[in-house]
Amino acid sequence: MRLRDLQESELNAEQLKVYKSIADGPRGGVRGPFGILLRVPGLADQVQQLGEYCRYKTSLSPRITEFAICITARHWNSQIEWAGHSKLALKGGLAQGILDDLRLGKRPANMQEDEAAAHDFCIELHQNKEVSDAAYAAAVKQFGEAGVLDLCGVIGYYGLVAMVLKTGQKPLPPGTPDPLPVLK
After folding, report:
1. What is the SS3 assignment for 3?
2. pLDDT category of residue 182 using cuts at 50, 70 and 90
3. How many Cα atoms sit within 13 Å of 115 on the Cβ side?
4. Are 39 and 6 contacting, i.e. CB atoms less than 8 angstroms apart?
5. What is the separation of C-alpha 144 from the centre of its chain, rounded to a whole number of angstroms?
6. With bands split at pLDDT 50, 70 and 90, how would you rate the model's confidence at 21?
7. Mean pLDDT calculated for residue range 56-82
8. Which of 69, 95, 108, 138 is 20 to 30 A removed from 86 (C-alpha atoms)?
9. Are 31 and 168 in contact (CB under 8 A)?
10. Mean pLDDT of the 150-169 span
């Protein structure tokens, strides 16, 4: 691990303020990228505020939010994100078969209409760096313009999380196998 998680006892006053804000918020603890990001408390605070919105307050259902997070985790081969958010996607109502296909880099079979719209929008944006008119129209039909922007926010935020985790080389808990196969 390049950048280990900073512990509460190591923090200066500014870092401790952000740490407590994260710990006392809806996450209920300092996990994921935040032990790394606390090295830059101003950034950590802004990131955690954006993350709180993208995870808990968007116009999207938890099923679609978690699906978009899993699509992003798959795109970045982010083992930690996948390990946590695939469980939350199932809890939110996403079918196991959809996650199984996505995990293997396949377009999931048997998606509901809103899942297909979210999938195609996110995949195009990640892979093509743009979205076709057809994918955009399908996403707007399902989620409205605000929902499409929320979808952008979710995958952008979780892309940032993946980059922080990969830069810091944050590992999975000991003994946990990588849940995602490396795709070419």
Report:
1. coil
2. confident
3. 20
4. yes
5. 21
6. very high
7. 97
8. 138
9. no
10. 97
**Residues 139-148: tens digit of each pLDDT:** 999 999 999 9
Give the per-residue pLDDT at 46.
97
The number of beta carbons lying within 10 Å of the beta carbon of residue 140 is 15
Contact 91/184 with Cβ under 8 angstroms? no
Q: What angle do CA 19, 22, 28 make, to 5 degrees?
A: 120
Query: d(Cα 130, Cα 183) in Å, to the nearest integer?
Result: 22
Contacts of 49 (CB under 8 A, 6+ apart): none
Residues with Cβ within 8 Å of residue 107, at least 6 apart in sequence: 101, 119, 123
Give the ranges where the chain is alpha helix by DSSP (H): 13-23, 34-37, 41-52, 62-76, 79-91, 96-103, 113-128, 133-168
Token pair for 172: 């999975």
Q: Which residue has the tokens 């409205």?
A: 144
Secondary structure letter of residue 180 according to DSSP = S
User: Exposed/middle/buried for 44, CB within 10 Å: 0-12, 13-18, 19+?
Assistant: buried
